[in-house]
Design a protein that fits this description.
Elements (H helix, E strand, L loop, with lengths): L5 E2 L2 H11 L10 H7 L4 E2 L5 H7 L15 E5 L5 E5 L15 H18 L4 E2 H8 L15 E4 L7 E4 L7 H16 L4 H8 L3 H11 L3 E6 L2 E6 L3 H5 L8 E4 L10 H7 L3 H7 L7 E5 L2 E7 L9 E4 L15 H5 L18
């Protein structure tokens, strides 16, 4: 039986992703909401980026929200630092195990040596590398076993320790990782999954194929893709009101996208280049469902975050200051006030 391809608009896709990511309406406080906010992981490569992502999605998130006992930190997709729900550790570790025998053996051997060397201690990254006899940056290759956790606060090197292996098998974890990617970034492609996860493209294609009838084909403004069949009703639904404003950190899941999806989110090339820079990305200001500017943390002068305008979908031509007061009132839970927020008028 041939399944009809869904013909989806930019507005439908972005509204679905915002709803799936908890960006239109904050979730109530609590571990369940933290897990939903981290459903596809929260990248934490910039100091406290995960905390700002939580704040954008969970009500009354304080400065220690990322330290909630229901969350853990590890080297996850692309060996980047991620915050995930502790109960989902297998998904973001075993789901990333290398598919070749040599790679698996390397990860298992390194994890075993690290466990023996640390003897239950939490030690600084560099010290752990010395104890095992490898460059410290290689320790991240052991994370896919699910037995290595970290705590990185940005200013110092991460602390490293080992834990018992999570329950589950790597194949089930891989398929669940693909499902979560599709729910958060769908409609999506195996190529996009490969770029996001760091898994080889042919193995990502195999994961999509294994999901079989649970996927529905979709046509988007940037090409054909796949959607979880169970999400079809949600993506077709009439979108509710978008949130007045959300301050998204560098690497937030909403714009952690490959090339084609970047075109969908921000149509103007020049403004797209301002968000996805060659080096460290700035944060993004989401106003009424559109990326309307970028921001970066203020320096020691106390100016707070500085913002620049953007015109993502070609539909907005400069937001008035009166349209962004929520961004100033809903300060992220940093250790101190954000200070002044500047949003230049017009272009």
């Amino acid at each position: 039986m041939t399944i009809a391809r869904l013909d989806l608009t930019r507005e439908q896709i972005l509204a679905f992703r915002r709803r799936a990511g908890g960006l239109d309406e904050r979730l109530p406080p609590g571990p369940d909401s933290l897990r939903r906010a981290a459903w596809c992981g929260l990248q934490d490569s910039m100091p406290r980026a995960a905390l700002l992502s939580i704040h954008a999605r969970v009500a009354r998130a304080g400065p220690s929200a990322w330290e909630d006992p229901s969350l853990v930190q590890l080297w996850g997709p692309r060996f980047s630092v991620f915050v995930v729900a502790a109960r989902d550790l297998a998904v973001f570790s075993l789901g990333l195990l290398p598919d070749d025998v040599k790679g698996r053996e390397k990860a298992a051997d390194l994890a075993a040596r690290l466990h023996t060397a640390l003897g239950g201690r939490r030690v600084p990254h560099e010290e752990a590398g010395v104890a095992v006899g490898v460059p410290a940056n290689r320790l991240r290759y052991a994370a896919a076993t699910g037995t290595v956790l970290i705590r990185w606060e940005g200013a110092r090197q991460p602390a490293v320790w080992t834990v018992p292996p999570p329950e589950g098998d790597d194949r089930a974890a891989r398929l669940e990782l693909a499902r979560r990617y599709l729910h958060s970034y769908g409609p999506a492609t195996p190529e996009g999954f490969a770029r996001w996860s760091g898994i080889g493209p042919r193995y990502c294609a195999a994961a999509f194929q294994a999901l079989g009838d649970s996927l529905a084909p979709a046509s988007t403004p940037v090409g054909d893709a796949w959607l979880l069949a169970e999400d079809e009703a949600a993506v077709r639904a009439v979108p509710g009101p978008a949130a007045p404003a959300r301050l998204l950190p560098s690497g937030d899941a909403y714009f952690l996208l490959p090339g084609g999806d970047r075109d969908l989110l921000v149509s103007d090339t020049g403004r797209r280049d301002a968000l996805w820079t060659p080096r460290v990305w700035p944060g993004a200001l989401l106003v009424r469902g559109e990326i309307c500017g970028t921001w970066a943390a203020g320096g020691s002068g106390g100016d707070g975050p500085a913002l620049a305008p953007a015109d993502p979908g070609g539909t907005r031509r400069g937001h008035r200051r009166s349209g962004v007061p929520a961004a100033a009132r809903a300060e992220p839970p940093c250790h101190g006030p954000l200070g002044r927020v500047n949003l230049p008028l017009g272009e």
